[in-house]
Design a protein that fits this description.
The protein is of the alpha+beta class. It has helices spanning 18-38, 176-192, 217-222, 229-238, and strands at residues 44-50, 64-68, 71-74, 79-85, 88-94, 107-109, 114-122, 125-126, 132-135, 138-141, 162-170, 204-207, 210-213. Strand 7 and strand 8 form a beta hairpin. Helix 1 (18-38) packs across helix 2. It starts with 17 loop residues before the first helix and ends in a 12-residue tail after the last helix.
């Protein structure tokens, strides 16, 4: 997982050795990944670089297409542009021909949800933040200016190329940092041989002639829980439907 989650380190012990620092970093990475998965793989804000292509205006001479059985019409066809997402380039359509009115040379649609825009760069030169405005997933050019054309045959920085660097995703909900820090501490203790609250795969314990029936850890993990009550209460509040992945629109 390349997206960053907040981590509250206030409950962590003081780490003096390099090996303990490395163990804690591994524990934190594991805690983030586990809670991201258990909350439905739907939270996290990730950096994205997009090379948008502004949708051209309708031209009856070139934009004649069939839009339904037995019916033809004209519209400005949306362009496609590449997005660097998760270590791979993806081709994504910009514009919503046929049902959305927000298209044209002064606005581009960014694959969302868009949390914030960090920078807009045109031909290698950063564009001042006052020259653009973000509304939802739409990036507008202000002052009556238009977005430039995009030459996808040339690398970024050359003439007729431009890009948008932005943060994409849904921010983790309240309390995320606290629970990530707690779970990371338990992973660290399990690795370092300390006292750990994570459930073991033990079903029955007998002490002084008295037997205790333990909860099967497999049942907890199968239900999308960790076995730590405070963390599990938060998971249930954040992901009550027990989603394994966020909803998508096709």
């Amino acid at each position: 997982m390349s997206c960053q989650w907040p981590i509250d380190r206030s409950c962590w012990p003081e780490l003096c050795s390099a090996i303990d620092m490395q163990r804690m970093q591994y524990a934190a990475d594991s805690a983030v990944f586990v809670l991201w998965a258990l909350t439905g793989r739907q939270f996290g804000v990730c950096p994205v670089v997009a090379r948008p292509c502004p949708a051209r205006c309708a031209n009856p001479l070139v934009d004649y297409v069939a839009i339904g059985p037995g019916y033809s019409g004209y519209y400005g066809a949306p362009e496609w542009f590449p997005v660097w997402d998760g270590g791979v380039w993806r081709n994504i359509s910009c514009g919503c021909a046929g049902r959305c009115s927000r298209s044209g040379p002064t606005v581009v649609h960014l694959p969302g949800p868009v949390d914030s825009v960090d920078a807009v760069t045109i031909a290698g030169t950063p564009l001042d933040a006052s020259a653009w405005a973000l509304e939802g997933d739409y990036l507008y050019r202000t002052g009556g200016a238009q977005w430039p054309r995009q030459n996808l045959g040339a690398p970024l920085g050359e003439a007729d190329t431009w890009s948008v660097e932005y943060q994409r995703g849904i921010p983790p909900p309240a309390g995320t940092g606290t629970h990530v820090g707690q779970l990371a501490l338990e992973f660290f203790n399990a690795c370092a041989g300390g006292k750990c609250r994570l459930p073991k795969r033990v079903q029955t314990v007998t002490r002084q002639g008295v037997s205790f029936q333990m909860i099967d850890a497999n049942d907890l993990f199968g239900a999308g829980l960790t076995g730590i009550d405070t963390i599990d209460l938060w998971i249930r509040a954040v992901n009550p439907a027990r989603l394994s992945a966020g909803p998508t629109v096709r």
